[in-house]
Amino acid sequence: MTPLIERFVLHFGEMGSRWGVNRTVGQMYALLFLSEKPLNADDIVNELGMSRSNVSMGLKELQSWRLVRMAHHPGDRRDYFTTPDDTWEIFRTLIEEKRRREIDPTLSLLRDTLMADPCDEQERHAQERMRDMHELIELATGWFDDVQRLSPDTLASLMRLGSKVHKVLEFADRLRPGSRE
């Protein structure tokens, strides 16, 4: 591994723990992402100096996140792994998995708690706060669903607009009939 690749792999390992996967899985993903060709478990063991069992468990984790694809070589019984080439596809997959693992269970809990009859003023207040949270999460996930349908080029253009979107919205408000400006 070159120093440049090693630096990226080590950084991804450290970031992995902040993103919900362990260091080993983060390093494995970074190695697979940068690799010019699909790697098998033995290649990963040799490159990263990890145990075979850690690599096997890490590959299962990456498969459960749908972040790696399996490939086969003719005459070779080993499984080879690679990441999608399209970084937008990777980003979308990560967001979908985070939503499925973290957001959806939270929305389910919030829906259940909002359907319960509050037994006192403290619970009424708590439900109002939960309702606010539920509405915000529903708004954000609805927006994400809309954005998810955009092409990568359109999505990149939208992201490049950044805070300029605010100016466009202000301008649109001024054009509406009955606006004060």
From TrEMBL:
<protein>
    <recommendedName>
        <fullName>HTH-type transcriptional regulator</fullName>
    </recommendedName>
</protein>
<dbReference type="GO" id="GO:0003700">
    <property type="term" value="F:DNA-binding transcription factor activity"/>
</dbReference>
<comment type="similarity">
    <text>Belongs to the GbsR family.</text>
</comment>
<dbReference type="InterPro" id="IPR011991">
    <property type="entry name" value="ArsR-like_HTH"/>
</dbReference>
<dbReference type="GO" id="GO:0003677">
    <property type="term" value="F:DNA binding"/>
</dbReference>
<dbReference type="InterPro" id="IPR036390">
    <property type="entry name" value="WH_DNA-bd_sf"/>
</dbReference>
<feature type="domain" description="HTH marR-type">
    <location>
        <begin position="20"/>
        <end position="78"/>
    </location>
</feature>
<dbReference type="InterPro" id="IPR000835">
    <property type="entry name" value="HTH_MarR-typ"/>
</dbReference>
<keyword id="KW-0805">Transcription regulation</keyword>
<keyword id="KW-0238">DNA-binding</keyword>
<dbReference type="Pfam" id="PF12802">
    <property type="entry name" value="MarR_2"/>
</dbReference>
<dbReference type="InterPro" id="IPR026282">
    <property type="entry name" value="MJ1563"/>
</dbReference>
<dbReference type="InterPro" id="IPR052362">
    <property type="entry name" value="HTH-GbsR_regulator"/>
</dbReference>
<dbReference type="InterPro" id="IPR036388">
    <property type="entry name" value="WH-like_DNA-bd_sf"/>
</dbReference>
<keyword id="KW-0804">Transcription</keyword>
